[in-house]
Design goal:
Largest sheet of chain A: 6 strands, mixed
Distance between the termini of chain A: 34 Å
Structural class of chain A: alpha/beta
Order of helices and strands of chain A: HEHHEHHEHEHEHEH
Low-confidence stretches of chain A: 201-206
Low-confidence stretches of chain B: none
Radius of gyration of chain B: 21 Å
Strand content of chain A: 5-15%
Shape of chain B: globular
Strand order of the largest sheet of chain A: 3-2-4-1-5-6
Oligomer: heterodimer
Helix content of chain A: 25-40%
Mean pLDDT of chain A: 83
Helix content of chain B: over 70%
Number of helices of chain B: 13
Order of helices and strands of chain B: HHHHHHHHHHHHH
Largest sheet of chain B: none
Shape of chain A: globular
């Protein structure tokens, strides 16, 4: 209920929504997107159709999302985020992405930002190898690229107050299978898919 | 007012029925055009409904409605105009401080400040806030874009609710009808230009700016609207002759407003300002002609028919400052 309301509010405020996700079969999948704003996770999660949203968890930075009660409440209760500690390995020396693996193992989809950090001015940084490990461990999960535009203008890095511009989200078809692909090739292919939806924002479709 | 409303509803009804008939008869290659026509008509019902209800509820609801329209239009304008990262703070001020203050001033009927607030204080504030960021690249062009956005989307649009506060001798309480007359005239002009253009349009009037505008459509549309305005003039302080002249002036201003806005749009490489209103495009696509016509209509009406607007602040502001 609260979650639906929040999603509606975010869709209304940013003008971002997704009609249909191709390749969605109900099985867990990995949505990966460019990262330019603290709003990104919230916006993608809100934009997804309800049946996908209720079983999708964003992967988010622990330091940011546990800072105050509101963020803790949103990340914990509303969208069930997987919070990652970005500083070093966990104490029990498990895999840094263990929490993400657990989430996929439980049958939930995830939203992840392979750049690892927010880019300044909205350009696309190099992808970290995390999503490659995800693909290796869960080869059945569809890898779905997402491009977010204008979010870095709505809430840029280093700003605390948003400006109400219109954002745009493009959900691309899932990445196809390529036999014996190296890590670098896979990351480059994933990055190119996200980059393909990042031209200047235009409202030219009729 | 009731008669004008009834007239608009009758036109909408005819348009909707025509749409239904066309949808039945449409050949496959014309399907898209008819679907767009029907989406437009549907949106008109919603827009007319919302506008009529807010006018009926009074002057504050009208102020709030136009405040919202300004907000959405400014948002479309700034989204398409690439502003820089360093403009973030000044944009926040524009959306959440300057814009609401402008409408608050209109709401409390402080004409003296509302009529200069954005061009004087807003325009001085915007470059000052920008200069505080220390960024000099494209300083003038981004400042100018933001100022232009504030001028057209906020300042010009706010002249429509200002019509609600214009004192006219022997016309007390009739300002809602006057605002309705203005909006109906300018929008009817858009609609009739579109209809005449579709029916008999041949010669393009501004092929580079607006490929759908034709000489036949423009002339036919404006003439039809002037006749319509003559018919509506009994609901305004104008006599039929004055009503016709007013309509001609606002139609021309609206026509050029539309052209100017489409020039900006083309330059930015977009067809529409957004997709907020089904069939029409963005909010800005619907109000571009109103923007330019509103201040002219407001001042001409005030000049000829007004009893002089009091520019001093409301009494409670004087009291608040102990005067």
């Amino acid at each position: 209920m609260t979650a639906d309301l929040l999603a509606m509010l975010v869709r209304f405020a940013t003008g971002v929504s997704v009609g249909k996700v191709e390749g969605w079969t109900g099985k867990p999948c990995v949505f990966f997107a460019n990262h330019s704003s603290n709003l990104d996770a919230l916006v993608i999660w809100s934009a997804l159709p309800r049946e996908i949203r209720i079983q999708t968890s964003p992967v988010a930075a622990q330091d940011y999302w546990t800072k105050n009660w509101l963020r803790r409440w949103i990340s914990g209760k509303v969208f069930n985020a997987v919070l990652l500690n970005r500083k070093g390995r966990p104490e029990d020396r498990s895999h840094p992405l263990q929490a993400v693996f657990d989430m996929l193992g439980k049958g939930r989809s995830i939203i992840i930002f392979p750049e690892g950090t927010r880019s300044q001015e909205g350009d696309l940084l190099k992808f970290k190898p995390g999503i490659f490990h995800l693909k290796e461990r869960y080869p059945d999960c569809a890898m779905i690229p997402i491009s977010l535009q204008n979010l870095n203008r709505i809430l840029p890095k280093g700003q605390s107050l948003p400006v109400p511009l219109i954002g745009r989200i493009t959900v691309h078809p899932q990445l196809g299978e390529v036999e014996d692909e190296s890590r670098e090739d896979f990351l480059a292919r994933a990055r190119a898919a996200v980059a393909s939806g990042l031209q200047k924002i235009k409202c030219d479709e009729d | 007012m009731i008669w004008m409303m009834a007239g608009v509803l009758a036109v909408l009804l005819v348009a909707s029925i025509a749409g239904l008939v066309m949808a039945r008869r449409a050949t496959p290659e014309k399907k898209a055009g008819v679907a767009n026509y029907n989406a437009r008509t549907k949106s008109w019902w919603v827009m007319v409904g919302v506008f009529a209800v807010t006018l009926y509820l009074g002057h504050w609801t009208t102020v709030v409605l136009f405040c919202l329209i300004s907000f959405l239009a400014l948002r479309e304008f700034i989204t398409l105009n690439e502003t820089k990262g360093c403009d973030h703070k000044v944009l926040f001020w524009c959306f959440f401080v300057i814009l609401p203050i402008q409408y608050f001033l209109v709401g409390i009927r402080w004409y003296g400040l509302a009529s200069i607030f954005i061009p004087v204080y807003g325009f001085i504030f915007i470059p000052i806030r920008k200069v505080l960021t220390g960024e000099t690249k494209d300083f003038l062009s981004t400042t100018a874009k933001i100022q232009w956005g504030m001028l057209t989307c906020v300042y010009f649009v706010s002249h429509m609710p200002m019509i609600m506060t214009l004192p006219i001798k022997g016309w007390e309480g009739g300002n809602g009808a006057l605002l309705f007359f203005f909006v109906a005239t300018v929008q009817a002009s858009d609609v009739f230009q579109y209809v005449w253009g579709k029916l008999i349009g041949k010669h393009r009037i501004a092929p580079k700016l607006s490929p759908n505008k034709t000489v036949e459509g423009t002339v036919g549309g404006i003439l039809t609207t002037v006749l319509l305005a003559v018919g509506m003039s009994f609901a305004t302080p104008f006599n039929p002759w004055q009503g016709a002249m007013m309509a001609l002036v606002v139609c021309l201003a609206g026509f050029f407003g539309g052209l100017v806005m489409s020039a900006i749009k083309r330059d930015l490489g977009a067809k529409d300002w957004g997709n907020a209103i089904a069939g029409h495009g963005g909010v800005m696509d619907r109000i571009d002609s109103l923007c330019f016509a509103a201040p002219i209509f407001f001042h001409l009406t005030g000049f000829y028919f007004g009893t002089g607007i009091d520019p001093s602040p409301p009494d409670w502001i004087f009291h608040a400052f102990g005067k």
